[in-house]
Structure formats: C-alpha cells, structure tokens
Amino acid sequence: MKYRITLFERMLSLILALTMTAVMLASGVYVRAADVDTGAVSTAGTDSTAATDSTAGTDSTAAADSTAATDSTAATDSTAAGDNGASGSVDISDATEPADTSDESDEDSNPMPTVDHANAACVYNIENDRYIFDKNKDEQIYPASTVKLMTAILAVEAFGEDLDREITATSEALGATSGNNIAIKRDEVLTAEQLLYALICGCANDAANVLAVEIAGSIEGFVVMMNQKARELGAVNTNYMNPTGMHHPAMVTTAADTALIAAEAAKNELIVEMSTVEKYTIEATNKQPQRIIFNKNYYYSSNMEYIYRWSVPRGLNAGYTAEGGYCIATSAARDGLTYIIIVMGARADDKYIYSYTEAADLINWALYAYGYVKVLTTSSMICEVPVKLASKVDYVTLFPSSDIELYLPVDVDLSNDVQISWQLTVDSFTAPVDEGEVGGTLTATYKGESLGSYELITKSSVNRSNILYIVDLARQLVETQQFKTVVVIVVILFVGYIGVSFLLAYNSRQRRSRGRRR
User: Is the pLDDT of residue 495 over 80?
Assistant: First the structure.
C-alpha cells in the first residue's frame, strides 16, 4: 500500500522550508554587514576561533591595561571619555624636564635684544619653522645685497656639479654692471667656480650678471627665474628686478622673506663654504692677471674692519646700498638648532656698522634663549576609551605615541603659556583591540600658537569575549529588518497552519459523521 502525503504534511513542510530560507537569508545579510562594520570575522560560517577561543576567559594582556592609572605623569581635565567628540586638557606643570641651559647660558643675563639701530630684523629657526624674534619682519623694505642670495641659489643649482665649466663674459652681461665688481672684461673666460666665489665671497655685481646671462640667456629671463624661486620658497612679498641688489624702486622684500631665502642658501654647503672664506684667488685668465678677492662680510674679512671678526656666524651675505642701508643675513647653530639672523636697514656712525652689532646681539641671545622641553612621555596616561565585547576590561587607556618635546623659551611659564589638549577620534573600541591603535590626538599650543599635533594610541591589546560576541551577534540579528520580516512570515505561516489544521480536522469529522449516518 502506497503511503499518501497528507495536506497537513505538505503544509508543515512548506512552513519549515520557508522559515529556514528566510533565516538563512537574514543571517547571510547580517554576517556580511558584521564583517564590514567590525572586522571581527572573515566569514560567518568559517570562524573556527569564534566558539573555541580558550583565551577568552584569561585575557592577560587586557588586564595589564588596568594598571594604566598608576603609570601616569599627566593629570587630565576632561569630559567623559567615549562621549561623542570627547576632549580635555592635560596638566603638564609637574611633567616636564627643563631645557638644557648649561655651558655658557644664563637666562637671567640673556635679555631679548631691542635692535634699535635697524629698521627690520628677525630670527628664524629652521628645524621648527618658527620666527623667535621679530622687528617689522613683514614690512616691505629694499633688499640691497641680500638679492645675491637668490642669485647664488640659482647659480649653484645650475653649476654646483660642473664647477670647472668655462663661461665667457658677454657685453650684454657687463653692460648692465654697476657698483661693486672684480673688473671682468668682455670675452674674459672664467670657470663657474671662480664666478661663484666672486659672487658669494666678493659680492661682485659683474659676476652676478655673467652667471645670470649664462643661465637664462638674459638678465630679464634670470629675474623671472628669481621671482619664481622666491614663490616656491614662500617668499611671497619679494619682487626682484635684477641679480645684483643695486637699487630699483620696484625691488622689495621683507625680513621674513629674506630669512626663508637665507635658510635655503644655508642648506647648501657650497654656498656656506664660499661665504665663510677670508679670501679667494682667481688665477690669471685670458684677459686679466691673478686677482685676490676678499670677503665683503666683515665677520670673515682679513683685510679691514677687524673689530667684527667672529667665528660663530656661518656665512652668508652682507652689504649696503644708500636706499636699503646696511644689511646682513647670516646663520648660527648650537645643539642641533640652526638659526637664520636677518638685520635690514641698519645704520652706521663713526664707531660701528650696526648691522654687525645688532646681528651679534641676536645670535648671542638666540643660541641660548630657546630649547626643547619634554612635556609628556609615552607613559603619560591621557584618557580612557570604552571597549565593547572585551573579555575582562571595559575600557582602554590612551597614551602619546612618542615622547613630546616642545621647542620653547628656556624660561617658559608652562602653567600659563603652554596648553596641551586632547580630542578623541573614536567614541569607543570594539574588541579585539590591538596595541598601537589610534584613538585620539594631542594638540600643543604656546601663547595661542600651534606647536603641533600628536597621536594618542593604546599601549596594550584587549581580547574579545566570545560569549559577548555571540550575544551581540544575536542582538544585532534580532534588530535587523530581515529578522523582523522572518518573524512576520513565520507568524503568518503559523496562523495559516492553524487555520488549515482546523479546516482539515473539521472536514474529517464531517466525513466520519456522514459515514455513521449511512
């Protein structure tokens, strides 16, 4: 006798099939979303560690983070960590190491110079891109001889690797020459090295023009290159009209711009070397006998003005025009810090050329006025961030990713002048959390000026609790629209099943009743 599938069994099979299909659909959609959102698993069906993680209950690395509160040198004033956009400030008054002011320095006897005998001046630190002294640094002035710094930069770029190249002086180049020169004659042949020494050491205008024509084909073309290079260096308030610095009413600069240009020149060892020699000998050429060029910078000159000779400055240029006054652009370094010192529009009297004396005062001050102050270390606890699904802890502590040293005056008032603030970039972490994960940033300011931003990171890892993970998966599954759709379908099918069952039972009773009546 063949077994006949009843309508009830068919309906039950249909309900089970539809239910399983809907559940699988919802689960598949959720797992794909979970992979994207948490990165916790690669696929739902192949996570062999999810249910068998034997370390879930013995999270030794996470426990280490609970001691973070005792490994701290910085107190924080904050909003609740984990709140959206949580932020706060750090008290660094007790978390600093003083800058090195040993050797010759004495902050009580190192007042900031006043620079009374020059129209403009500034001191610029290359490593930190900061002006630490400013007198009218952004006011337009005539550049005078400092123009030759730009001429030297472009000339060394062109010939620095080809110093033996022979260059013939043309009438075009020499016809534009006035002021200080070494009497180069038309058709005289000199090497690039000889012309560079004449320009950088001897401040020779004829050498500047000969180099300019050789590089660009004309004085005008070279001036275009000078102005383009100035813009590249950020000297946006500078306008060149010639390669020599001879006065032109439209040729202007600022002390700040001159510092940027001098900083570029100071990075080139050839320019520094050529600008610090006492003298240079040009051997006899096809037109001239041997010539000796003396340095026009009185810090190095060996033939006049011995009162200014000094070995501390390193180059670069000094000069004078009636309209621009006495000017000097030089550099000095100590303890890995390099300074550019600019003095423009200085005066002179029977005793001194004040560009040299003012620059000397600025050098002596700058070398000992600033240094690095360590305000935080990698052990300085900054703030805490909640961790979800962790096996043993419910927060992780953030620390600076590196020791934080700020370039500051050695006599800085840390409590009032320096501010350290932090800002979270996450509301919370979801376990597992790796050591070194970024959770926020620190920002340092000095009297409102930004000194930089630094990452805040975790110092320990946090394992995931698999029980909490599974519960969270279930919770999120229940909250999905797909799951809600499955529930509705199952309810509808169940109601339908009850209705069909009732109808079948009713029909069966009716058949049995009719059979008995027969």
Answer: no
